[in-house]
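JOB MANIFEST
job_type = single_chain_structure
chain_count = 1
residues = 159
[input]
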Amino acid sequence: MPSADPPRNAAARQRQIGLVIVATCTSASLAILVLLPLVSGLVNLLRDILGVLILPFSFMFGLGGEQGESPALLRLLSDMGLQTQLHPLRLGAAAILELLAVFLFVIAERLGGRAGYMAAFTATAGAIGLSGLPLAMPLLPAIVTEGVFLFCPPSPDPE
């Protein structure tokens, strides 16, 4: 049974796979950047509640030191808020740069040329720099894909 779809060339397939990789990685990273302030507020609230709940037991069982605060308990409670103290404007700027990078990558795919790929690569690198490496781990496949497209761009469609 013959297929109704016209045959696609390898460059079109390469562009399609690249677009899927960049879009998937960027959407995962954007979800993390947007949800981080919400989770951060929840973790800080939980840390404060646990601090109040642990305080009577630390006095009763002598878990507290001379000042009534145990270093182990303080370390436990302070580690709960780790990676949540980033400035919200930096996270917002990183999210905007990620959206700009995807837009530039799509434009570069449609128009061709290395300038669009270079701009997308630069915007993604800026987003990684602003958000920090632990939060930007989902963007690493996207920046590698943009780098591959920058140095070896696919040939344009014959149409």
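[summary]
The chain has a mean pLDDT of 78.
The helical segments are 10-60, 71-79, 88-111, 114-131, 140-151.
exit_status = 0
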